[in-house]
Amino acid sequence: MTDQQTFIGYVGTYTKGESKGIYSFALDPLHKRLSDVKEAASLDNPTYVTISQDNRYLYSVVKKGESGGAASFSIDSKTGELKRLNDQLAEGASPCHVSVDSKNQYVVTANYHKGTVEAYKTNKEDGTVQPASSIIEHHGCGPNKERQEKPHVHYAGFTPDENYVVVVDLGIDKLITYALHDGKLTEVKSLSVQPGSGPRHLVFHPNGKNAYVMTELSSEVIVLDYKADDGSFTVSQTISTIPEGFSENNQGSAIHISSDGRFVYAANRGHDSIALFRVDQDSGKLTFIEHTSTRGNWPRDFVLDPSEKFLIASNQNSSNLVLFSRDEETGKLQLLQSDINVPDPVCVKFLHD
User: Which of these, 57, 81, 135, 208, could form a disulfide with 76 (CB 3.0-4.6 Å)?
Assistant: First the structure.
């Protein structure tokens, strides 16, 4: 999906301002520049997108009138252009997160406002999504009366072996593991984390034995030990993503890990930074290294490029993408470019190398 000159990426956005939908861009690793930002698909609030492992399809969350759901697109193998295939909608708020399994059999979405997780089968012949085959509604609340008055599902993704779907619920401070068979989600395990922490997103270590959760309300990374045989998690460490003594508003956002499993990156909205941690390869525990400014306001997400020599952050409130070079030995970031305008950017994804 890429040639020697460029990597193609996509940006999901909020369309409440100037944005028209999904945008694409090109990263030139030789000249270390981002360019060719353009509208790739017009639709409402495609805030989160994901790309199939074979690079043939892109799936996004979508809002349409008073309904929301999942939309599918085909990806042109030469140009990266998107073609709208179909969408599946239900009455009410749109989801906030979407994932697809490696075989492109299932798409799962997390719905923050409804407190639900949804599973959709895909049509393998053409990549379209079928109507939701399973919808699970969470119940309960948390101690933060403003943000945890009810369930707020913020993430749904597959375990490394894809035997389970892990769902992170900010509103009830829980991780819930589901089995997905014949299109039906069935709860198998759950883990309650520190009340009021507000878990948001999760990433697995390449070893499949550890996972890392970014909390939105307490601005921490929760280090987890994962048992693949039964889908259960246990907490081994909690570490802050913001400096000691920082008292201004901060909300944790995205979390990602390098493919060698040596470094975890976590984004702070408010402190407007990316926190870098070194991973102990025996225990999976983290040691803080440094903060890097995202050179913008409210970094909603970031992504490592396919070569992992670069990192791109998306600042939602300042509407800019920021390109950093990445030292693969130290994990540290160095600013290259901060003036790439994309309106209200949320999620950033690259085509797989």
Answer: 81
| Integer Cα distance of 15 and 120 in angstroms | 24
> Is 232:178 a contact under the CB 8 Å cutoff?
no
Q: Is the pLDDT score of 136 beyond 90?
A: yes
Residues with Cβ within 8 Å of residue 329, at least 6 apart in sequence: none
Task: Report the C-alpha gap between 72 and 137 in whole angstroms.
Answer: 24
User: pLDDT, tens digit, for every residue of 280-295?
Assistant: 999 999 999 999 999 9
Domains of the chain with CATH codes: 138-293 (2.130.10.10)
Give the separation between CA 87 and CA 94, rounded to whole angstroms.
Answer: 12
Q: Tokens standing for 245?
A: 């003594």
pTM: 0.97
- For the segment 62-66, the average pLDDT, to the nearest whole number, is 96
Tell me what the mean pLDDT of segment 52-71 comes to.
97
CA 276 to each of CA 62, 128, 182, 208, 306: distance values in angstroms, whole numbers, following the listed order: 32, 38, 40, 21, 19
CB 279 within 8 A of CB 264: yes
- Cα–Cα nearest to 127, from 40, 65, 175, 60: 60
Q: How far apart are CA 139 and CA 149, in angstroms?
A: 10
Residue 146 banded pLDDT, cuts 50, 70, 90: very high
